[in-house]
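Feature request, filed as a ticket because there's no other form

It would be nice if the structure record came with a short human-readable summary line next to the C-alpha cells. Right now we just get the raw output. Example of a typical job, pasted below so the devs can see what we mean:
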Amino acid sequence: MTAADAKRLRVFSAARLGLAGLLLALVPFLPADLVPGLHGGMLALALLAALASAATVLLMPPLSAPRRMAWLILLLDTVLVTAFVAGTGGPRSIFAFLYVLSVIAACVLLSRAGGLVVAGAASALYAALVFGRTVFPVTALFEPPAETTALEVLTMFLNTGTFLTVAIVAGGLAERFRETSRELETQRRDLRDLQAFKDVIFQSVSTGLIALDDEHRVTAFNRAAEEITGMRTADAVGRPAGTVFGPSVPLAAIDAALVRNPRGSARHETALTRPDGSTVPVRMAFSLLRSGDGERLGLIAACDDLSRIRQMEARMRQADRLATLGRMAANIAHEIRNPLASLTGAIEALTASGGGGDAERLDDDRERLGRIVLRESDRLNEIIRSFLEYARPAPLAAERVNVSEILDEVLVLLEHRSLPSGVKLGREFPPELTWRVDAQQFRQAIWNLCLNAIEAVSEGGEVLAGGARHADRLEVWVTDTGDGIPAADLPQIFEPFFSTKPGGSGLGLALVHRVVVEHGGQVDVRSTPGLGTTFTVTLPGGDG
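Raw output as currently delivered:
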C-alpha cells in the first residue's frame, strides 16, 4: 500500500465513524414498520463496535502494515453490518444496502479481488441470516420463527447477486482509478523533477537571467542577476524593468525589433547603477519568451558583467599605448633628425657668411636661410605638438551633444579653406543626432578624417560626411572618391608616423583611432583602389 492508500484508509475510517454515529442517533426514532423486529441490544453493540474500531484507526500512529488493517476492518464491517441488519428486521431490514458500501470500500482500499472476497463474505452472511431466521429458523430458541415468503427469498438472491455485481463493476473502476492515479503521480513526479532541474539550471548559470512579462515587469530573477545588479530577487520580482535596468535601456524599441524578427535577439550595452550607487558595465541580449505552444509570454534578458573585460581592455590599451610609444620614440628621433640637420646647416651657413662679399647677395642668403630656420622650426613644433596630443590625451569629458552640429561645423570650416578645384563636400546626416561624446576630441577626430579625405581627392572629386543612429550604436562615416589606399598599407594606417603623403606627420589617423577607442568604439576602413575610401566610426551605448 502506498502513502495515498494509507490516507484513504483514514478517510474511510472517518466516514465509518460518522455513519455509525448517524445510525446510532437515527435508528431509535424510525417508525416501527421500517425496522420490524428491532433488537436494541444487538444494534447498539454493532454500532459501538464500529465506532470504537473507527476511532482506534484514526487515533493510532501511522500504520506499518496498513493493508492488513484494511482487510481486518472490512471483514469486521461485514460482520457488523450483518449484526445491524439482523437487529433491524433481518430479511425485511431496509439497511441491507450497507453491504454495498462495504463492497465498494473494499474495491477502493484493496483491489478487485478484495472486493470480490468481501462481496462473497457479505453474500454468505446475508444468506445465512435469511435462512437462519426463515427457512431454517435456528433463532427459534429466543424468538418466534417468521413466516418465509417467496419475496424474501427472491430479495436474498437479488441482494447477493447485487453484491457480486457491485464488486465486479466497482473493482474495475477502482483498478482504473488506481492506474490513473499512478500515472498522474508519475507525471507530477516527472514535472517536479523537471521543475527542479530547470530551477537548478536557472540558478546555476553564471549569466544573469531576467524574465519580463508583456508589461515589462520582472517575473524571474536568478542568483547571477542578483550579483550583477546588486538587487535581491524579492526586491526585483514584480517591479518595472526600469527599476533594474535604468532609463538607458530602450525596452520599447527592443520589443518592437523582436516583434519584427521573433527568432532573433537584440543586444544592448549599458552601465547599470546598483542600489549602493556603484555602476557596472553589462551586455544584455534580449529574446522573446514563449510557452511550449508558441504563445508569447514576454522577454528574457541574458546579462553579462563586463567589468573584467573592460579592465582587460584597459590593460591591453595601456600595453598597446606603451608599445606604440616605444615605436614612436624611434620614429620621432628619425623625424626630428631631418629638421635638426636643416637647422644646423642653416645656422652654420649664417655663421660662415659673416665675412666679406657682396652685401646684397649676403642679405639674400640670410633671408633664404632664415626662412629655412622658421620652416624647420615650425615643422619641429608641429611634430612635438602632435606627439604630445597623441601621447598625453586629456581625460574624456563626455556629455550629450548634437553630433550633427559637430559634423556641420567641420564641413563649414573646410569649405572656407582653399579646396582643390571642383571638390564638393556632401552631407548625409539628420538635423538632430544626440549622443554622449567628448565634443572637443570628437570634433578633432572628424576634422582629421575630413582633412585626409580632401587631401586624397583630385579635382572634381567629392567628400561625403554622414551619420545615423542604429538602435544602441552611433555610426559616423567619411567617404571620398580618391585613389583609395593600397591593400598593403591598410594594416598600418593607424600606426603613429606612418604616412604616404609628402610632409605628412602620420599622426592624424593615429589620433582618430585613439579618440574613438577612448570612447569605447571602433574605426573601420573600406577602400577600393581607384574608387575611394570610407572611414566608419562606431560608438556604442549612447543615451540620446
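Something like this underneath would help us a lot:
The chain has four domains: 3-188, 205-305, 307-392, 397-544.
The chain has 15 helices and twelve strands.
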